[in-house]
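Working notes for the structural subgroup meeting. M.R. asked for a predicted model of this chain before we commit to crystallization trials. I am recording the input and output together here so anyone reviewing the notebook later can reproduce the run.

Input as submitted:
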Amino acid sequence: MDRDLEKIYTADEIKIILSCSIAHIETKRAEKINALLHNDIDWDLLLDVANRERIRPLLYRNLILISPEKVPSTVMARLRNEYLRNSSRNLLLTRELLFIIEIFNANGIPIMPFKGPVLAEQVYGDLALRSFKDLDLMIPEREYNRAEELLQSLGYANNLKFTPAQNAAFLKSEYHQHFVNDKTGTHLELHWRISSSLFSLQPDLSGAWNRAGIMTILGKKVPSFSPEDMLLIMCEHGA
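Returned structure, recorded in token form:
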């Protein structure tokens, strides 16, 4: 390993991030974090890496539970403000997700949310602990046209205008379409498969709908992929 890279990956800042990258911290891990915080920490580096890995909410929650007095007040205030903004945004996106699921169900269109709020609840058990900025929804490919029309009726739009032949080719080769609601600022990705058909690896999720379970988010029951299918999806998306 390159010496500079080795120095980075063995730095106390990285050790703190790795140790804090878990929802429930046991006593030994907390003691390790506490000991690391006694060292001379480069907080700019730590925050930069945490931001790139999108774990600042989790980092804040764990630091404030373990040793908030060992973190500079300016750093803690910055993390707290970001945590509150993230929590507020996540709550708004989750409510929008539940609304969309309700509308799709009322119109008889199968829909499966994944990543975003679903992954936050599945992995952390807390919507506030994961950073996400859009919504991801899976539908059967045969339902795409109806789903697109329904989203448009809710104020969502995409920039692609296809002829019927172009639309058929797009659905065959691609795997998702991006929509934006200009009124709410919500970004949404509508998926009908996991990845582009041009990829050599195509996970077989033909039975995913039958393997799906039910989870509760904000008191509402929503469908969710099985843990095994979700793992394949996360590996494919690098999430």
